[in-house]
């Protein structure tokens, strides 16, 4: 059975200097999982998060941790991140030569596979087997790794096309919106096929408001 997650919190947007306080806020909020971005400096021009932070976090939360490997050759890193505590490993078709083999490897090591598509990537039918098996499909609406970006408008239609393709083939895998997800953009993202959200600096971690308040506002925007 696939997950019933709705809202994930982006670890790259946490206050990493005050993780104990940040975790307390996360655990008080209606957040279903933690989204942990790893970018290798080649998949996008930045380096973000790694094994030591995950190893430090894992003993302090029972929430599922999804590691998003925005990297080339994710097979080189899958075992390390599962050993460090990842429950879900998300990989990109743009970064691996064999999605299904990578998915099998993830399951063999005791984690669940998920799929991610860059904002400019158009879903194709050769990805359908992985899409059907994935816990969910993250559709990036910005480039991976950099906080504070605005949604790339072309991502909306690509998300709609992805949802239509899944529905046409009877695949009920959920689509996750990731990038500039907030109360203003959520209704449009939902309209274009998103049924899960990842919250970051523009929606979940706002100055002057608690994470719990922001998370509830995001969920309310989904219902509208």
UniProtKB/TrEMBL annotation:
<protein>
    <submittedName>
        <fullName>Ribulose-phosphate 3-epimerase</fullName>
    </submittedName>
</protein>
<dbReference type="GO" id="GO:0005975">
    <property type="term" value="P:carbohydrate metabolic process"/>
</dbReference>
<dbReference type="InterPro" id="IPR013785">
    <property type="entry name" value="Aldolase_TIM"/>
</dbReference>
<dbReference type="Pfam" id="PF00834">
    <property type="entry name" value="Ribul_P_3_epim"/>
</dbReference>
<dbReference type="InterPro" id="IPR011060">
    <property type="entry name" value="RibuloseP-bd_barrel"/>
</dbReference>
<dbReference type="GO" id="GO:0016857">
    <property type="term" value="F:racemase and epimerase activity, acting on carbohydrates and derivatives"/>
</dbReference>
<keyword id="KW-0479">Metal-binding</keyword>
<dbReference type="GO" id="GO:0046872">
    <property type="term" value="F:metal ion binding"/>
</dbReference>
<keyword id="KW-0413">Isomerase</keyword>
<dbReference type="InterPro" id="IPR000056">
    <property type="entry name" value="Ribul_P_3_epim-like"/>
</dbReference>
């Amino acid at each position: 059975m696939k997950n019933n997650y709705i809202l994930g919190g982006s670890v790259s947007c946490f206050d990493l200097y005050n993780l104990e306080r940040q975790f307390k806020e996360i655990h008080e909020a209606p957040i279903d999982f933690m989204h942990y971005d790893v970018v290798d400096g080649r998949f996008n021009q930045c380096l973000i998060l790694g094994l030591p932070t995950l190893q430090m976090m894992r003993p302090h939360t029972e929430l599922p941790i999804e590691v998003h490997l925005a990297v080339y050759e994710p097979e080189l890193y899958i075992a390390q991140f599962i050993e460090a505590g990842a429950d879900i490993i998300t990989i990109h078709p743009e970064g691996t030569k064999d999605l299904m083999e990578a998915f099998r490897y993830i399951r063999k090591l005791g984690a669940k596979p998920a799929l991610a598509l860059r904002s400019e990537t158009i879903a194709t039918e050769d990805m359908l087997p992985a899409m059907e098996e994935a816990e969910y499909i993250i559709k990036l609406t910005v480039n991976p790794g950099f906080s504070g970006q605005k949604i790339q408008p072309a991502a909306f239609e690509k998300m709609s096309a992805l949802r239509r393709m899944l529905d046409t083939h009877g695949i009920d895998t959920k689509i996750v919106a990731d990038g500039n997800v907030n109360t203003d953009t959520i209704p449009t993202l939902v309209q274009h096929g998103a049924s899960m959200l990842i919250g970051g600096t523009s929606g979940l971690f706002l100055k002057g408001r608690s994470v719990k308040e922001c998370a509830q506002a995001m969920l309310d925007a989904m219902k509208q």
